[in-house]
Amino acid sequence: ERTTAFYSAIWKELICGANPAYHCHSYSQAYENRQREQHQARRKLCVASVICTFFMIAEITGKYVCGHIAGSLAVLSDAAHILVDLTGFLISLLSLCLTSKPPTKQCTFGWHRAEILGALMSMIIVWMVTGVLIYLACMRLLHPDYDIDATVMLITSACAVLTNILLSLILHQTGPGHNHGAQGREGTSAPLEPALSNASLQAAFVHAIGDLFQSISVLISALIIFFKPQYKIADPICTFVFSIFVLATTITILRDILTILMEGTSKGFAYDAVKARILTVEKVESVHDLHVWALTMNQTALSAHIATADSTDSQKILRDVTQALFEQYSFHSVTIQIESGQDQKPDCVFCQEPRD
User: Fold this and answer.
1) Rounded to 5 degrees, what angle do the CA atoms 249, 298, 193 make?
2) Separation between Cα atoms, residue 145 and residue 134, nearest integer Å
3) What global pTM score does this model have?
4) Which listed site, 16, 139, 223, 303, has its alpha carbon 20 to 30 Å from 130?
5) For residue range 315-348, what is the model confidence (pLDDT) as tens digits?
6) For the chain, how far is it from start to end, CA to CA, in angstroms?
7) Are residues 50 and 86 in contact, defined by beta-carbon separation less than 8 angstroms?
8) DSSP 12-46
């Protein structure tokens, strides 16, 4: 409630201000998108957690009623993935709660990075569990003295596949996750609405996809063992092969997480394109010390020094640059420093163009 009031106050200030089009914090669309993204992510994660908990209880109950576990490493790995999924969902929900907190004097940007840290923790858990399963699969390949109940394994794996398909559909995010407007537009139209991309939700989706791969491997090995019991080696082989697929699904989000933690440029915010957009503003001579970095997957900040030909009209230039940027991009924050062209030092190390 406090967070909602905080953002509502900002929204009213932007709408009711004397000149909202040129207000220094004219990123109400970014705040609105962020609030909508977090609400959507929380709702999906809550639904997924309920389904995951229900299936886990049903699976444990079913095994208890049967009086034994199937003996399949694949079934055990599937149960482990369900528990890991639920843990990952709860971590994602906790990180979303933290990101909703308003900024403090110590955390002036707010708690947005909690979402990224939560996603990183979820990916680490996936790698750890998958590593353990690969190790156990190797041990079974080396020591094949084990028994498997193919019937229980088949029933469990079929239910797991259906459950994970449902979880994947619930957690799927539409769109590529870019948060930029259409480029090359004319006039002063608002930027296109960005596709919502939440790191916590994406990490949960990777969990679900990984679990789906694992469940499919269980189902395949169960079918093989059910019809050909002598081929029980299919159980660890399928576990090993599909574990590799699970790890492969984490590469993209890990790359995005590391880019954000390294304060890299977000997808859809090309450095050269942003700089070119600033240079189109009248009386802007040059741009240096330009920084474009991501707080989250769709919360991008910008700061830049701008050399102008007419320092007496700096406020108008500042408004024009700010408006030009917000017309084309959905920035979370834009900070511009206006300087005179006469004050520039070509040999300044901080003013040099960064490498490609």
Assistant:
1) 115
2) 18
3) 0.72
4) 223
5) 888 888 988 888 888 888 888 998 887 777 777 7
6) 44
7) no
8) HHHHHSSSGGG-TT--HHHHHHHHHHHHHHHHHHH
